[in-house]
């Protein structure tokens, strides 16, 4: 049911959103998160690397977890890889449900877990030619941890 | 055993993957890290601080005490930073 894509190409958020309610009348709300590349500190580009053999499975497991926790009618996760310029979208999470609470909570859960449980790495390239690997943030771990369930 | 490296681990080791045949006493991820660190100065640099590393065995995240076997695919990388 879920649509999971890892791709270099940009995506069409409007078309992806419309697809979640096309031809059905049981969808009451669609929540979205669109991650965009910031241009902090003279950033020229962000280069996203991933582990191709593992990425799809890891995202699929995260999505299955969301579908088990909330009554979703649809779910879309698109994560770009390769070279991304400031202002360009990086990641899209869409969740559809009969009611808003499930859609909003599932969307927040998915992006929190994508940040901490899917094998992607960001490298920042700067105008002067230098680059650095982005370091994992404790805040992201804390955000993901709030969704942990006892015994999980 | 096939070993893959990603992000700065790949850059420090200098290659993206290699086929290895560690001795029988290398039974888990932590032991494999210690063994790999002895392969070359580049490996030693990449594996100098195991706390900075994460691993996957057969494409699932794996803690240091996770077993490894001859036909496994083992990957090493920094903590993930996607999203």
TrEMBL record, chain A:
Q: Where are the transmembrane segments?
A: none
Q: Does the keyword Plastid apply?
A: no
Catalysed reaction(s) here are: 2 [molybdopterin-synthase sulfur-carrier protein]-C-terminal-Gly-aminoethanethioate + cyclic pyranopterin phosphate + H2O = molybdopterin + 2 [molybdopterin-synthase sulfur-carrier protein]-C-terminal Gly-Gly + 2 H(+)
Its annotated pathway reads:
Cofactor biosynthesis; molybdopterin biosynthesis
Q: Which UniProt keywords apply?
A: Molybdenum cofactor biosynthesis
- InterPro entries xref list: MoaE_sf, Mopterin_biosynth_MoaE
Q: Does the keyword Chloroplast apply?
A: no
Question: GO biological process: what's one of them?
Answer: Mo-molybdopterin cofactor biosynthetic process
Classification via CDD domains: MoaE
**Complex and partners:** Heterotetramer of 2 MoaD subunits and 2 MoaE subunits. Also stable as homodimer. The enzyme changes between these two forms during catalysis.
Q: Family per UniProt?
A: Belongs to the MoaE family.
What is this protein's function? Converts molybdopterin precursor Z into molybdopterin. This requires the incorporation of two sulfur atoms into precursor Z to generate a dithiolene group. The sulfur is provided by MoaD.
* Protein name according to UniProt: Molybdopterin synthase catalytic subunit
Origin species, per record, is Neoroseomonas soli
TrEMBL record, chain B:
What Pfam families does its record include?
A: ThiS (PF02597)
One GO BP on record is:
Mo-molybdopterin cofactor biosynthetic process
Q: Kindly list the GO molecular function terms attached to this UniProt entry.
A: nucleotide binding
Sorted keywords for this record are:
Nucleotide-binding
The UniProt entry's GO CC annotations, sorted and at most eight, read: molybdopterin adenylyltransferase complex
- InterPro entries per the UniProt record, alphabetical: Beta-grasp_dom_sf, MOCS2A, Mopterin_synth/thiamin_S_b, ThiS/MoaD-like
What SUPFAM superfamilies does the annotation carry?
MoaD/ThiS
* Taxonomic superkingdom: Bacteria
Q: Does the keyword Transmembrane helix apply?
A: no
Recorded hits in NCBIfam families, A to Z, give: moaD (TIGR01682)
Q: What protein family is recorded?
A: Belongs to the MoaD family.
Q: What is this protein's record name?
A: Molybdopterin synthase sulfur carrier subunit
- What organism, scientifically named, is this protein from? Neoroseomonas soli
**Taxonomy-wise, where does this protein's organism fall, top ranks first?**
Bacteria, Pseudomonadati, Pseudomonadota, Alphaproteobacteria, Acetobacterales
What gene is this protein translated from?
moaD
């Amino acid at each position: 049911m879920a649509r999971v894509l890892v791709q270099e190409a940009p995506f069409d958020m409007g078309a992806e959103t419309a697809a979640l309610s096309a031809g059905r009348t049981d969808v009451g709300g669609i929540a979205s998160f669109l991650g965009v590349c910031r241009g902090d500190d003279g950033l020229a580009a962000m280069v996203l690397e991933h582990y191709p053999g593992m990425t799809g499975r890891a995202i699929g497991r995260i999505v299955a977890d969301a579908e088990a926790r909330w009554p979703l009618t649809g779910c879309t996760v698109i994560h770009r890889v390769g070279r991304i310029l400031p202002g360009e979208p990086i990641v899209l999470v869409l969740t559809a449900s009969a009611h808003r609470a499930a859609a909003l909570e599932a969307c927040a859960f998915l992006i929190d877990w994508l940040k901490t449980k899917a094998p992607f790495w960001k490298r920042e390239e700067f105008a002067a030619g230098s680059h650095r690997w982005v370091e994992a943030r404790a805040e992201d771990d804390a955000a993901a941890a709030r969704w942990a369930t006892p015994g999980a | 055993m096939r070993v893959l490296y990603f992000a700065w681990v790949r850059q420090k080791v200098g290659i993206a993957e290699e086929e290895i045949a560690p001795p029988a006493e290398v039974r888990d991820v932590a032991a494999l890290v210690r063994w790999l660190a002895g392969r070359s100065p580049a490996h030693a640099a990449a594996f100098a601080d195991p706390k900075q590393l994460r691993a996957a065995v057969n494409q699932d995240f794996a803690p240091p005490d996770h077993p490894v076997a001859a036909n496994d695919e083992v990957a090493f990388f920094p903590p993930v930073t996607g999203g």
